[in-house]
Amino acid sequence: MTTTTRHLLVAVVLGPLALTGCGDDAGAGAADVPAQMLTIEASDWNGWDPEHQATPEVTTLEVEVGATATVESVGEEITFEVTEVGDGEVEVSSDQRLAPSGESGGSNLNDLVEEFTVVTGEETSLATPTLDAGYSYLLTLTRR
Length: 144
Known about the structure:
This protein is an alpha+beta fold. It has one domain (35-143). Helix content is 15%, strand content 47%. Strands 1, 2, 3, 4, 5, 6, 7 and 8 form an eight-stranded antiparallel β-sheet that branches. The longest helix has 17 residues, at 3-19. The chain is globular and about 40 Å long.
């Protein structure tokens, strides 16, 4: 085998391997990260009608900073906004103060929040801060 033949053989065999390292990898990581979805289930309730049937309304949005969802609230609407996105959690703010779930059930009316964290695999439960009637909000984060 001559030197020219060997060089040609090396170019034919190794040429395609050298080209696999070329290209733009700028967007390579973006496709690997699955989109996260935030689901908000709003259910009405009242404290005086034992026959009351809640009418849940479900809103889902793809998570990105600035994404908003507007849902029903006591006689008006409430807007939730994604303010920060992390891997497996998001920071959310609301335009109304809400009561988080208490440790032993019910709502904590003494520690109202406008900003809170929703974590994948955990439910975040909030409610309008009222004692007679209102809305409960169940927020969940999932990967799409």
